[in-house]
Amino acid sequence: MDQQPISALKNVNGTILHLGAGECRELESYLETAAELIVLVEPDPQIAQTLRLRSHAEPRVKVIEAAVSDQEGEGELHHYSVTGLATLHPLKVLPEKWPGLRKVHSTGVQTNDMAQLLDQVVLASDKQHWLVIETPGEEQQVFQAIRRHEAYQPFDYITLILSNLTPEVEQARPMLLEMFEEAGYRLENITTKTDQMAYHAKADIQWKEYQELKAECDKLKILNTELTQQLVNSEEAGSQGRLAHLERKLDLLFSEQRNYIQLTTNALGQHLTRCAQQQRDEQALAYYLEHGQHQPGIQLSPALAMALLELRDAQRYDSVVIFGSGPMTELFARAILQDQGSQRRLVRAGQEDEAGPSGYAAPFQSDLSPSILSVEHQQTLCDQLEKKLAAQDLKIVVNIVNSPWTECRYQDQSALFYSSEQMIGQLNQWLRAEGRSLVIVGEALARVQHSRAAALPLLLQHLEAMPKELDVVLEHAPYSQESTLLKQWNTLLDARQQAWQLLEMPDALGWRIKG
């Protein structure tokens, strides 16, 4: 699991529990969080010892040498020829994707059930905790232990990693994802690699409220039964006074019970509607991206990704500029290549006559890409993105620019932003007055506690040839340090007498500015 869900990394301040940690390539990311305790559970003695040596100077890290099983005792860990692949459940059929895969050896290991492991972990109610499940074949009993725990939703975030070592993985996947919902967790996003898929989920607050209302309804039903029996007994005894008293209590009880049932029904309906919408967004995004291929290894909110793709289909942008978001670049590049035959091209200002009857002219190789300009603040990020795009034949529609963060002045304030004056000047040469453009500002600045408030003022300052329509979207906004950003930008647009409107975007802020 190379990438972690941003929400978990940003918010966890309690315990991180990683079941089946292996070599734990994520340890550095865990240490960057505010987590008070990081528990790595690994059955292989050699790997567990390596983890202890790596973390001996980190008092927050605890290594437990054990395998997660359905019972305490001893078990046999089966190792395979690919480094790091081991399971308590020997594979009956080897995956076709790994034709050279074979069992190498077995190791006797100590086993603990999930309930015992939870007893060894502190899960304070006022902290946010994260569980990572990487236990091929034991996922079901882990979820069952979570549901039996004394506290509703003991973990605020859960990551479930399924690989080809998971027994009958294709058949098990729907059942395990259903257990997410049954345990009160809502799927946030999915990241993929060649040999595994990671499902990142967050605790659903309304699920807890629903469970409490359901428990209250169950109590009222029991009380109702008892009172009804008392009523029957009173009728048999012929006590009219007692009968009238019980009838009044029953009327009061039924009134209260109707209110509880209505609240429960509303909570359940909202929960099911949200889950259905989430599933629809994920399926639609997978269909848009895959077409017979695996979903690219990106980390995007499915709802936001689908909203942006639908916005792109409706607007048919002439150009897309993306600041600090490799995953968003990959998403748009794939979408553009899928309908490359019908996409609109940019025309150099003043060269409309050269375009001919077709209405557009192809750009020179030395100029910007006719489709996407992706801006990163470090050369290493540019190189990584270029390599990733090239591996998927997406580089042809993307021009990658290295633009370091520099201190910029705007509205008598200073803030970091991409040193993009030269780049925007180059882009101005290609924008047509009647064109449409999309600018997406990723999370890179916000993740390191910087506000992105400078983005719009600087864009408006340097985009002298405003397009017909300019859509600006801030991913996963606003962060805590951007609490006043919405008001600032609205005030700025009003002061410039720009015609504008807010775009309804899930998990993002968006504006449409008229040129």
Description:
- The structure is a single chain.
- With 515 residues, the protein is of the alpha/beta class.
- It has three domains: 6-203, Vaccinia Virus protein VP39 (Rossmann fold, 3-Layer(aba) Sandwich); 207-281; 302-514, Rossmann fold (3-Layer(aba) Sandwich), CATH 3.40.50.150.
- Helix content is 40%, strand content 22%.
- The chain contains 15 helices and 20 strands.
- A seven-stranded mixed beta sheet has the order 3-2-1-8-9-11-10, sandwiched between helices.
- Helix 5 runs parallel beside helix 6, helix 7 packs antiparallel against helix 8 and helix 8 (240-289) crosses helix 9.
- The protein is globular.
- The chain starts with 5 loop residues before the first helix and ends with a strand.
- Helix-strand category: alpha/beta
Q: Which architecture of the largest domain does the CATH hierarchy give at level 2?
A: 3-Layer(aba) Sandwich
Strand portion, in percent? 15-25%
Please outline the major beta sheet. Answer: 7 strands, mixed
User: How far from one another are the termini?
Assistant: 44 Å
Number of helices: 15
**If strands are numbered along the chain, what order do they take across the biggest sheet?**
3-2-1-8-9-11-10
Integer-rounded radius of gyration: 28 Å
CATH fold group of the largest domain: Rossmann fold
In short:
The chain has 515 residues and is α/β, with parallel strands linked by helices. The chain is built from 15 helices and 20 strands.
